[in-house]
Every structure is written in structure tokens, then in C-alpha cells.
């Protein structure tokens, strides 16, 4: 028996350990298309102080209609923001710095020759999808001379995967790229990629609502569903929703006086296959009037959710251009019939993606209609459930809202951002509509957004993709603190011994020889895996020293292995204190620079900041002994033996001290 969506959401909403991967692989984060992001960093206090990150580069080329994606892991262990543009450019940006990790152009976009439409150039319009198992990114691009081509790219390198792209005109019988648009987000369910298609602005030609299923196993055939009615496009930005097995799409206005797939929410079995049974579709009883008025039911994609205690409890939310919200019984959709519940929710059309969330007290959906409001409605558990207004605020622009919570049902914040002169980010309490973040200051603006955009949240950051630029906002947080920092040397066959380097208070003193080029190694260990993201990963900010070995600088490079960072130092002058800074350290939650102080005083065996007779005595007392954690400082030459060589070194430095 499948678990209900509310249980799956609750399990997904549990606070994740810092080491757990965070990935945004599809539109509105989840297959249900609810737009919910669980992130412990977004407490109300932290969210109130969110600010645009001025150090995030984010420069790209092309107009953006699609939502960005976010993926962690991979061979380089760098979190990436994936962005696509109408110029057919695909980018992977470093999630911390915004620098380009890789970019790929998948072909010349179309700039002329289409019978209608209002996007120029037109390339990649919809939100792609990522398969984490194969680390593959899937997208549809309109390419000059070829029409719609579906690509698979390696998400870590940008390379086109073998066997791709798939050209729709050749792969799907009756498919005509000139009249089919691809605005709806892609879906990926149980090894099959689903790509929805509608028509272009102007409704030219004999297009149909289509859902094409492309198995990731190339040995399996490509399948396609098309509406019986001409037109009836699947064009809503949210695209394909899924309950883990079946697919759900919404269609727009069609033709003819007999219902044939138009103005409907349709459930398809894997393939995709449509049963044509009334249990697997729903259309309002006035569907023909909606057709005549061009008031597409499918202005938004379906959103799947559960309301515990309601009858029925398994529901579908559908909103669209007719200004209504409908609740549909997901168990038995009913055919052409009255919905479970219905309410007028705005004075303007809804042509973006609603968000659905449940707090400790209620289940809500948030919508952003063209009437210039952001509104939340409560779905009341009952038999049947009902819809009532919860709160509404003035909100210029029509971008899709999304929601953050710190854990299941806790601290809901509804986020939205404007377009044009209202291009600011706003956050509202999900229960009350009270302002949490009111757009920020003079530096918190951005540009190039449009009505089909939406944002994502990951690791205490919000990413917004607009024309030629990705903007990042971040809540205040500190860098991850090392659990230890040491100066490490290998004492021959005796092994490694460490001098502790406290981050605060009196710096640790390194008393051992650095050899002819004064080389040392600092090892910092953290509780969780980390990345060091600065272009210059490490630098000596005070004192005479360089990052490198053998007397040669390496340009600030360090070695990162899991939770350990190794910093090579060279040309470290004696009798001084240096500060070594790691730039841009992150464990996925914390982020910032870390300074590790280290004093160097050759021969200070007794660790008292002065080389004198006591150090000579301590070294002589250890002569001939095995090197251990108790006496390793006396092995000043760091060769695994305490002997006359060490005594000689200490004598040669007697009288030196730390300032």
C-alpha cells in the first residue's frame, strides 16, 4: 500500500542532518509540485535578515523563463546551481560564489520562421529535471533547423550523454515542432522522462496537448499521449505532477462540442497511457464555456496534496484562467462532474504555479494571480473539505510563490518576488500573512524576472534566475568551526605528531624545524564534510609565509578530503606569529572565512615563547628516548630521534623569543 502524501511530506520535512545531501531536482522541488522547501536555516528571525549576497557572481547569457535547480555531490563535491536560458545556454554555477563551473550551448535558438508565438529568441523555456542516480540533467531545447530536441547532460561536466539528443519530429508520429511549444516543466518518474507540450501564443496550427515519455533505458520505445481535441495544450509552468507512479497534467482550451481531453485534469498511467475512464480525469461541467472564453483550466499545473481528517483526503488542487480554485478527489476524479470543492480566489487569472503547505494548525495553498495580490487559502478538513480565505497582501508581479519551513509544519514562510519595478524578494508568515521580509534595502534589488519565474531555497540561500543573471540571497550564518587545527609533522618512523593551534586565545607555538625552505603543514578538521570555495583558497594574511612547498608558492591551493583541510606552508620565517585564512569554507549550512593563527619559534621545546636554558635542558633530558606525544617537541629536527642534533639546534636559537 502506498503511503499518503501527507506522511511522505512529514518524513521529508524532518530536520535533515547537516551531512545529508540537499538537492532541488525539479520544478517546485517535489513531484507533487507543492513548492515546499524544508531548510532549518529559515527561522523567522534569520529570514527577516536575509540579504542579497553581493559576492555571488551569477552572470549568464540569455533570457530565463525556467526555475533554477540545485545539486550537491559529484566528483568535485561542489554544490551547483543549474540554469538554462532561451539562448540555449546551460550553466552550472558554484552555489556559493556564483562562478561558472561549466557551460554548454546545445544549439542555435530559433529567431524566425515560426507561425506564431511571443518568445524571441526561443530555446530552452521550461524547467529541466535531474536524475540523481545517473547524475543526468534533462531538458528540451528548440534548435534552429531541428525543432524540439531533448538533451541529457552530465550534471557535473556538461557533456552530452551518449544516445542523446532525441529529436521530437522524428521520434513522435505526427509531432510538428513549428506549432508545439514546451513551456511546462519536465518530470521524471521511475526511469521515464516525461516532456509535456502545448501550443504557442496565438494558438496557431493544429497542435495538441501532448505528453511524451522517453525511457532512460534506450532499449525501451518512446511513448506519447495526445488529446483527442485539437489544441488543448499542456502549457502550465508546473508541468507534470506525480504521485510516484502516475502522471497528472492539466489542459487548456480545445475545439468541438464533445469533450475530448480539453479543459481537464488528466491522470495517466506510466508510459504515458490514458485509460479514458472517468476515474482518471476531471473536467468542470462548464468546460465548453471555458473553451469559448479562452479561460483555460490549465493555466496552472495540478498540485497533489493530502488533508488528514477530510473526506476525501487525497486531493488535487487546480487553478487557472477562470479565477477559480478546484479540489478534486484524487482517488476517483469523476469525469465531467462538479468538483469536491470550488471557490473564486481572485479577480485576475492564475497562470503560474501555486504552492501548498501544511502548518501545525491548517493546510493552505498560496496563489499569485494577475490581480496584483499574493493570497493564501485554507483547506478545511471536512466531509467534503472546503476552501476559505486565510490572508491576502498586495504583491505586484505574477511570479510563482514558494514556501520554506524549518521542519515539518514549522515556521512557514511564503516567498514571492516581483517583476519590473517591483523586482524585490518578499516573505510572509504562512499562517497569518504578516511580513517577515519586506524587500530589503537599496542593494537587495534584482532585474530581468518575468511572470513564469520562481525561486528555490537551499542551505540558507534563495536563488532567483532572471535574464542574464542569477541572484542569491542568504540568511546570516557563520562559517563552520573546526573541531581541531594542528601543525602536523612526520617524525620519521615514529609517525605524525601535532602541535595544537587554538583559534582563540594564545596561538599554538610550532618549535620544530621546517627544513631548508621552512615548510609546515596545518591540518584543520571539521565535524562535517566541507568545501573551500574561495578563488584563493588560503593565504597568510599576517606574518611572513606563503601557501606552498619547497620555497615555492602554489597560488593558495589546499587539499580537501571530506571533513579535513590540509594547508601547506613554505618560507615561514622564525620568531613570528602568522594568521592563515581559509577563504569561503562551507559545510552546506555555515559559510565564511576561518583564520588559524600559528606562532613559530624554533627550539621553544618548553612552549613558553622564549628559547633559553630550560629548552636545552628539556632536549638533553629526552636524548635517546623514543619519540612520543609527551616529548615530541624535543625532537626539534623532526626525524624520529632525540639526540645531539636537536640539542645543537636549540643552542643555536637560544635567546630568541616571540614578540
Unreliable segments of 5+ consecutive residues: 6-19
What's the helical proportion of residues?
under 10%
Q: Give the number of DSSP strands.
A: 47
Instruction: Give the overall silhouette.
Output: elongated
Q: Distance N terminus to C terminus?
A: 72 Å
Main sheet specs: 7 strands, antiparallel
Mean pLDDT: 94
Number of helices: 6
CATH homologous superfamily heading of the largest domain? Quinoprotein alcohol dehydrogenase-like superfamily
SS class:
mainly beta
In CATH's first tier, which class of the largest domain applies?
A: Mainly Beta
CATH architectural name of the largest domain:
8 Propeller
Proportion of strand residues: 25-35%
Return the domain count.
2
What name does the CATH topology of the largest domain carry? Methanol Dehydrogenase, Chain A
Radius of gyration equals 30 Å
Amino acid at each position: 500500500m502506498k503511503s499518503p502524501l501527507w506522511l511522505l511530506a512529514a518524513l521529508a520535512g524532518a530536520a535533515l542532518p547537516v551531512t545529508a545531501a540537499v538537492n532541488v531536482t525539479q520544478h517546485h522541488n517535489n513531484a507533487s509540485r507543492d513548492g515546499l522547501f524544508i531548510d532549518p536555516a529559515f527561522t523567522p528571525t534569520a529570514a527577516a535578515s536575509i540579504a542579497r549576497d553581493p559576492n555571488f557572481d551569477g552572470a549568464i547569457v540569455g533570457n530565463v523563463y525556467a526555475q533554477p535547480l540545485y545539486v550537491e555531490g559529484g566528483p568535485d563535491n561542489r554544490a551547483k546551481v543549474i540554469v538554462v536560458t532561451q539562448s540555449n545556454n546551460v550553466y552550472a554555477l558554484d552555489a556559493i560564489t556564483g562562478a561558472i563551473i561549466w557551460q554548454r550551448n546545445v544549439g542555435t535558438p530559433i529567431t524566425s520562421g515560426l507561425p506564431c508565438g511571443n518568445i524571441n529568441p526561443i530555446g530552452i523555456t521550461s524547467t529541466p529535471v535531474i536524475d540523481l542516480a545517473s547524475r543526468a540533467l534533462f531538458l528540451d531545447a528548440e534548435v534552429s533547423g531541428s525543432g524540439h530536441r531533448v538533451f541529457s547532460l552530465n550534471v557535473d561536466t556538461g557533456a552530452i550523454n551518449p544516445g542523446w539528443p532525441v529529436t521530437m519530429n522524428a521520434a513522435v508520429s505526427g509531432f510538428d515542432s513549428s506549432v508545439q511549444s514546451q513551456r511546462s516543466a519536465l518530470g521524471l518518474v521511475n526511469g521515464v522522462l516525461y516532456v509535456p507540450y502545448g501550443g504557442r501564443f496565438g494558438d496557431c496550427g493544429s497542435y495538441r496537448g501532448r505528453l511524451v515519455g522517453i525511457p532512460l533505458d534506450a532499449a525501451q520505445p518512446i511513448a506519447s499521449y495526445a488529446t483527442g481535441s485539437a489544441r488543448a495544450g499542456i502549457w502550465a509552468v508546473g508541468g507534470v505532477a506525480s504521485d510516484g507512479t502516475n502522471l497528472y497534467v492539466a489542459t487548456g482550451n480545445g475545439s468541438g462540442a464533445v469533450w475530448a481531453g480539453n479543459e481537464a485534469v488528466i491522470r495517466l498511467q506510466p508510459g504515458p497511457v490514458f485509460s479514458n475512464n472517468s476515474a482518471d480525469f476531471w473536467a468542470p461541467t462548464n468546460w465548453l464555456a471555458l473553451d469559448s472564453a479562452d479561460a483555460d483550466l490549465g493555466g496552472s499545473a495540478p498540485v497533489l496534496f493530502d488533508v488528514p481528517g477530510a473526506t476525501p483526503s487525497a486531493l488535487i488542487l487546480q487553478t487557472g484562467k477562470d479565477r477559480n480554485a478546484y479540489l478534486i478527489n484524487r482517488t476517483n476524479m469523476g469525469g465531467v462532474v462538479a468538483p469536491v470543492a470550488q471557490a473564486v480566489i481572485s479577480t485576475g487569472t492564475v497562470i503560474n504555479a501555486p504552492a501548498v503547505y501544511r502548518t501545525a494548525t491548517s493546510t493552505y495553498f498560496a496563489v499569485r494571480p494577475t490581480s496584483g495580490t499574493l493570497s493564501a487559502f485554507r483547506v478545511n478538513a471536512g466531509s467534503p473539505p472546503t476552501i476559505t480565505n486565510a490572508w491576502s497582501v498586495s504583491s505586484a508581479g505574477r511570479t510563482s510563490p514558494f514556501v520554506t519551513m524549518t521542519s515539518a509544519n514549522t515556521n512557514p514562510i511564503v516567498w514571492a518576488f516581483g517583476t519590473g519595478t517591483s523586482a524585490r524578494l518578499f516573505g510572509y508568515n504562512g499562517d497569518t500573512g504578516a511580513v517577515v521580509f519586506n524587500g530589503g534595502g537599496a542593494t537587495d534589488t534584482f532585474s530581468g524576472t518575468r511572470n513564469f519565474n520562481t525561486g528555490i531555497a537551499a542551505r540558507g540561500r534563495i536563488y532567483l534566475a532572471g535574464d542574464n543573471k542569477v541572484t542569491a540571497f542568504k540568511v546570516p550564518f557563520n562559517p563552520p568551526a573546526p573541531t581541531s587545527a594542528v601543525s602536523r609533522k612526520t617524525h620519521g618512523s615514529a609517525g605524525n605528531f601535532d602541535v595544537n593551534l587554538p583559534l582563540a586565545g594564545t596561538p599554538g607555538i610550532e618549535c620544530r624545524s621546517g627544513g631548508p625552505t621552512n615548510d609546515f603543514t596545518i591540518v584543520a578538521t571539521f565535524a562535517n564534510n566541507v568545501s573551500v570555495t574561495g578563488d584563493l583558497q588560503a593565504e597568510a594574511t599576517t606574518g611572513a609565509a606563503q601557501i606552498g612547498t619547497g620555497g615555492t608558492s602554489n597560488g593558495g591551493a589546499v587539499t580537501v578530503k571530506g571533513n579535513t583541510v590540509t594547508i601547506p606552508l613554505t618560507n615561514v620565517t622564525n620568531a613570528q606569529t602568522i594568521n592563515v585564512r581559509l577563504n569561503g569554507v562551507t559545510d552546506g549550512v555555515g559559510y565564511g572565512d576561518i583564520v588559524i593563527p600559528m606562532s613559530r619559534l624554533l627550539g621553544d621545546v618548553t612552549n613558553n615563547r622564549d628559547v633559553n636554558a630550560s629548552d636545552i635542558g628539556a632536549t638533553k633530558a629526552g636524548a635517546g628516548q623514543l619519540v612520543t606525544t609527551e616529548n615530541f617537541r624535543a625532537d626539534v629536527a623532526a626525524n624520529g630521534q632525540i639526540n645531539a642534533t636537536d640539542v645543537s639546534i636549540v643552542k643555536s636559537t637560544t635567546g630568541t623569543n616571540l614578540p
